[in-house]
């Protein structure tokens, strides 16, 4: 943590000292990330990535001769704090766009602020309700949880696994995932035989898993973000459960494997391609961006870039494209974002329209599994 903090400080110093080279006013954007608190595994890589990309853009001469300025605040994963800071970014800092927040709950709380302030918001969270129904000023870079459900259900159908037990976290992300899991089940011939939940701070889920074991499902789907899913993985193995275990994209990083340890072996989940970038064919349209992001993050922070940092990479680069196409006001930025076509980013190939501010299809996900302590693509 100290090394990362030092590197972040060095990037900030670089950004400040470079400002003298830009004569024109800066293009100011804001970032709301859960750098501390229970969602720090999301917010820290997002903050780090946003700072890295902005630094690289300015190092290369900025955008149309203007410096890109990033104002970042830590929400600590708290929706009330996120709302306060969003108001500060709009009213005091006068940013042209906001990236974040990190979680679905925070994003839903901040949306009215962005809509009232008429400032584009690019959420880094996955809940489908962030952009459905459509909000004029709101976009997102995290893949919709509905697409993650499709990827899992397609695999289950192919494997002829029909009886499914659900275990979802009782927060915004879990509620949205649970809703999609239930809504799409019939379409894939899935029968939900258990529908249980756990709290974000729960440290033992053996009670729920014991009940699920007694029902003998064909598969168990856990929907949540760390550390809960790692606990569930360990609990399942401790109970001797051999049933195929699926996780959501909410744990799509090496952190999940580190937390769950050997118990994670064989667990499958839908993920963006970044965690398996080196396994992709050269023909994959995302590979160039993915490799650039992974190598850049390693160079700056001596750590692997992940699925979550990728959401911020996409957001900054989408804004860069809007500015390069001549946007000079929040309204113009919004219009240019909506006109984005086939931007090959980290989360997928984005095409926004006046009816779609999520911009991705089911091909944004691949199904991966833990194999020998690392991620591998499920063929």
UniProtKB/TrEMBL annotation:
Question: What are the alphabetically sorted keywords of the record?
Answer: Amino-acid transport, Signal, Transport
InterPro entries, alphabetically?
BCAA_transport, Leu-bd, Leu_Ile_Val-bd, Peripla_BP_I
Q: What is this protein called?
A: Amino acid/amide ABC transporter substrate-binding protein, HAAT family
User: What processes does the entry annotate via GO biological process terms?
Assistant: amino acid transport
What family classification does the UniProt entry report for this protein?
A: Belongs to the leucine-binding protein family.
The answer to keyword Transmembrane applying to this record is no
Signal sequence extent: 1-23
This protein's source sits in the domain of life called: Bacteria
- Ranges where the Leucine-binding protein domain occurs: 27-372
Instruction: Please provide an example of a Pfam family that matches this protein in its UniProt record.
Output: Peripla_BP_6
Q: Gene3D superfamilies from the xrefs? A: 3.40.50.2300
